[in-house]
Amino acid sequence: MLRCPETHEEAFLVMSTGEMVGRMVRSGILGCPVCRREFPIMKGVVQFSAGEGAPLRDKNTQSLRGAPSPADAQTLQALLDLSGPGGYVVLVGSAARHAVGLAGLMGGIHFVGINAPPEVGELPVLSLLACETMIPLRGAVARGVVVGPERTSTAWLGEALRVLLRGRRLVIEDERVTAPAGLKQLAMGEGMWVGEKQ
User: Fold this and answer.
1) Average pLDDT of the residues in 32-48
2) Which domains does the chain have, with CATH numbers?
3) Which of 16, 86, 95, 178 has its CA 20 to 30 A from that of 77?
4) What is the pLDDT of residues 26-38, one digit of tens each?
5) Which tens digits make up the pLDDT trace of 86-119?
6) Within 13 Å and on the Cβ side, how many CA atoms surround 88?
7) For the purposes of burial, counting CB atoms within 10 Å of the CB of 75, is it exposed (0-12), middle (13-18) or buried (19 or more)?
8) Is residue 57 a contact partner of residue 153, using CB atoms and an 8 Å limit?
9) Torsion-angle region of residue 98: left (phi > 0), alpha (psi -120 to 50) or beta?
10) For position 70, what pLDDT does the model report?
11) ∠ at Cα 135 (134, 139), nearest 5°?
């Protein structure tokens, strides 16, 4: 499901593992067969950011000051409207802090944290990726996406929409956003915005 952040066709990445703990890769390298770039895996986090071009930053990607209070795992589970195991849910930015709570409620789903806060660590149910220019996943692979309030720029929301499967939900932890075209608004309020990919 991973993809190189360079602007070329999507291709499977090749992994060379170093240290592993169970099924979790703690160190290693991911390589792109198209452009030959290599991305290190350090302390369980795939580092796609080193040497990239301009990052996806705006006023919303810097701080959580003034952001609404985060939702609880039960609320997010209801908003994502997922039933049954399998597949991936992407948690962008500070939303990665919900992985443990959601995993306890939604067994059998794997979570992918993008640019998670430093206090969020890799778990058997959570893979961590660091990339400042995009969500380094192939298109239409996620059963659900939750975006933290500091990652609500147009570019990050466009990336969230790109990786989301059609008919699935995008939950944004900020009701003040302007959602990208291609999403049908389902709910808004209490610091949350929820839409479904058309």
Assistant:
1) 96
2) 52-197 (3.40.50.150)
3) 178
4) 999 999 999 999 9
5) 999 999 999 999 999 999 999 999 999 999 999 9
6) 22
7) middle
8) yes
9) alpha
10) 66
11) 110
Task: Indicate the residue type of 45.
Answer: V
Render the burial of 121-148: b for 16+ CB within 10 Å, e for the rest. ebeebbbbbbbbbbbbbeeebbbbbbbb
| CA distances (Å), origin 107, targets 87, 117, 150, 187 | 11, 23, 27, 25
- Model's pTM, two decimal places? 0.91
Judge whether 90 and 171 are in contact, CB under 8 Å. no
Please, are residues 148 and 117 in contact by the beta-carbon 8 Å criterion? no
Q: Round to whole Å and give the CA distance between 171 and 148.
A: 9
| Nearest of 67, 50, 73, 43 to residue 146 by alpha carbon | 73
Residue 183 tokens, joined? 């999403």
